[in-house]
Amino acid sequence: MRIKQKAKKNHFFLSFSNFFIYFCANLSLKGMTYNVILFSLRNMLRLDIMIWIAGIPLLVFAVMWLYYQLRLRKELQKELSLLSKVQRHSVEYDLVLKVMKMAIYRIDVQAQTITFESDFRDVVGSFHFSPNTPLEEFYELMLPESSAKIQRALRDLMEGRTDEAHEQFETRLPHSDQIHWEDAYATIEKRDLHGNPLMIVGTVTFIDKQKSIERELIEARNHAEESDRLKSAFLANMSHEIRTPLNAIVGFSDVLPMAQNDDERKELINLIKQNNARLLRLFDDMANMSKLEAGDEAVRKEHFNLNQLLMDVADKFADKSQETGVKIEIETPADVVQPYSDRNRLREILHQYMDNALKFTTEGVVTMGYQVNNGLLRIWVRDTGKGIPAKHCNDHLFERFVKVDEFVPGSGLGLSICRSMASSIGGKVGVESKLNVGSLFWVEIPME
Length: 448
Fold this sequence. Notes:
six-stranded antiparallel sheet, Helix Hairpins, single chain, Beta-Lactamase, Heat Shock Protein 90, alpha+beta, 10 helices, elongated
């Protein structure tokens, strides 16, 4: 028992000893650990080490922040560059429109409205549309032919049948009778997913000057063509008209020495004189026409006795009337008229009228006269000749080289000269005639 008790005591003592040793050892180890920790904390709390420990994250953060700022700056510079380009493009865009005097318009296909932008047209002040104006109001200002043409072109564009349109049209300013020519272009700006047009953009500008130049060029071309035609007609007519009396003069002059008696000689001399007069008349007409076209002879207005002028013209044609047996009479009102005009040009007109009257009148009377009505002086020559068909009694009769009867000698310049001379003194000419009854040619000038 004792041995067991002693063994138990030894075992307890041994266990306690082991526990004490373990406890002491454990305390020693923990003390060492605490010392290490305290030593480490002391070292970490040193200023230089703290600076390194805190500085490294700050340095990393500063580098990242600097990189971010540099990247942000580059993006801002890029955006500013793009913005400056857009602004510069807008200025250049407006400058081009201003120089071209154009306007930009946009048409909303679904809303059927039109809006004008950057309008630099000449008469924009009196020709302004409010934004989103209905297309019908835009069409109403156009002339009917132009409106139908523009509607057709825009309809094809809005329905996708065409991609571009270009038309010139006439339009009337609002609250005005002024009509202007415009030149318009249009194309599709936006489409939906199915390709249908949503927005149309276009330009429009006034082209009145261009149209005026076109008209002048067309008139100049027509005038040149007419001049070429008249030159050809002039050469053809003159060669015939000059050759005919010249051949008669040369031929009768050769026959004259071979005349058998005085009567035959006298007849040949009369024929030569008639052809001489005809040839001289032809050259006078050519000279008068050239002077009128060149404008070399100035209009010289003066007061003169119109009755005396008629008597002078009658005296000049007295010999010719005696040869044909046609009487010349003068009808004048009771009051003597003294017009203020070019006496020589009126006399030349009456000469042409009298020459034609005696040429186409074989019997009867040729009468000269005048009358004043509503401030207009009308001088006329009436004959009892064969007359002129009604279809020829118009302005065409007073054009160059126009002859009603091609078999009657004459250059066809006389009546054209009358019209040109009357126009130069502010007057006009005309004719009234009945076939187989007679004709009446007149010239009308204002009384001054």
